[in-house]
From TrEMBL, chain A:
This is DUF2170 domain-containing protein.
UniProtKB/TrEMBL annotation, chain B:
Belongs to the PspA/Vipp/IM30 family. The keyword Coiled coil applies. It holds the Pfam family PspA_IM30. Keywords: Coiled coil. InterPro entries: PspA_VIPP1. It comes from Marinobacter halophilus. The keyword Transport does not apply. This is Phage shock protein A. Residues 29-63, 97-186 form a coiled coil. It comes from the Bacteria.
Length: 134, 231
């Protein structure tokens, strides 16, 4: 599965009543921005490597957080990461992200399931951790 | 693996510019890839060597068996010669037997040495295989890290140039709340539309105004019944 076939597959697909709006992100790396209907506020970014399909959604940046409650937030993020379906919490650069990695042999159905879950999880997480914003 | 993970964490904590890190990791990649190729090469050579030694050991075992069999056969010959009183012939056969036995001993010694080398080589192959798996895992981590950094840098640049900036969490939350409110409104609207279509809303209004057609009908029937009774 590469980003091109993903673009084609997701374009007209529906999954659990959702549709997908796919837009390539210009640059050297093959990256797609996927907007899931009903969760448009948290687009999911997909990139495909030899070993995995990486999907991630942005939550917040370090600067947006209340520095005094950072430790507590981290603790809670680690705890919530385990039971959260198909996603884990992480950080890249200054961005806190929720992400999921799939095998490159995954089919469209698995990828769509991941995208829907990730976008919804991102919304739930933002609303859950809203109190930690500065 | 530990060193790779530590290097990545140190680079991250430094808050170094993300593309700069990617370049550093790119060099790390090349070094790792070279190490991977070296380990693969070593493994291939060791396996070839191992196969050759094992074939040699098998051949030696066969030769040892041949010498032992020959010695066994000649022993029978020697016994027969002695029984026939052919002392001279028996001595000649005995000399042959010594030759076979000596060669069998020599070959066995060679084979033992060979088996030691085989055991050592097997260990080397196992070590190389483990190291290869380690390198592959490290390379995967380094490459994925680099890819994630590049990808996020690319998203940042693009979203930055297209919109004003990557929206802040507060803006996103605002939009989520707006949508959720709109969805709620839509649900309320569709519920009231349903009432309108079934006339349930009008019935409610009439009831609120003290006009209840259902109750009126019951009263009418009762009045009629009472009237009949009176007649």
């Amino acid at each position: 599965m590469d980003t091109q076939s993903l673009t084609l597959a997701l374009g007209d697909a529906t999954h659990a009543g959702r549709t997908f709006d796919v837009m390539p992100v210009a640059g050297d790396e093959p990256v797609l921005q996927v907007t899931v209907s009903g969760a448009e506020e948290t687009p999911v970014y997909i990139t495909v490597t030899d070993t995995q399909i990486l999907c991630l959604a942005y939550l917040f940046d370090t600067q947006e957080l209340n520095p005094e409650r950072l430790h507590e937030l981290h603790e809670n993020m680690l705890r919530i990461s385990v039971p959260m379906p198909l996603s884990a919490l992480g950080k890249t650069g200054d961005h806190y992200v929720v992400y999921g990695a799939l095998s490159p042999t995954s089919g469209t159905a698995e990828i769509m399931q991941e995208l829907v879950t990730l976008a919804e999880n991102a919304i739930d997480l933002l609303q859950t951790f809203e109190d930690y914003l500065a | 693996m530990r060193t790779v993970l530590k290097k990545i964490l140190t680079a991250m904590r430094g808050g170094v510019n993300e593309l700069g890190e990617a370049v550093v990791d790119g060099q790390g990649n090349r070094i790792l890839e070279q190490e991977l190729r070296d380990a693969e090469q070593e493994l291939k050579q060791a396996k070839q060597e191992l196969a050759a030694l094992m074939a040699e050991a098998a051949s030696l075992a066969r030769q040892i068996r041949v010498e032992q069999d020959s010695a066994g056969k000649r022993e029978q010959d020697a016994r027969k010669a002695l029984a026939a009183g052919q002392e001279e012939l028996a001595r000649e056969v005995a000399e042959r037997i010594v030759g076979h036995e000596r060669r069998a001993t020599e070959l066995t010694q060679t084979r033992e040495l060979l088996q030691q080398r085989i055991a050592g080589l097997k260990e080397r192959v196992q070590r190389a295989e483990k190291q290869l798996a380690d390198y592959r895992r490290e390379l995967q981590v380094v490459k994925t890290n680099e890819r994630v950094l590049r990808t996020t840098a690319q998203i940042d640049t693009n979203i930055n140039s297209n919109q004003s900036s990557l929206s802040t969490a507060k803006e996103t939350l605002e939009r989520i709340r707006d949508r959720q409110a709109r969805e709620e409104d839509r649900q309320t609207a569709s519920a009231s539309l349903e009432k309108e279509l079934t006339g349930a809303d009008l019935d409610e209004k009439l009831k609120a105004a003290g006009i209840d057609s259902e109750q009126d009908a019951v009263n009418d029937v009762l009045a009629r019944l009472k009237g009949n009774q009176a007649q």
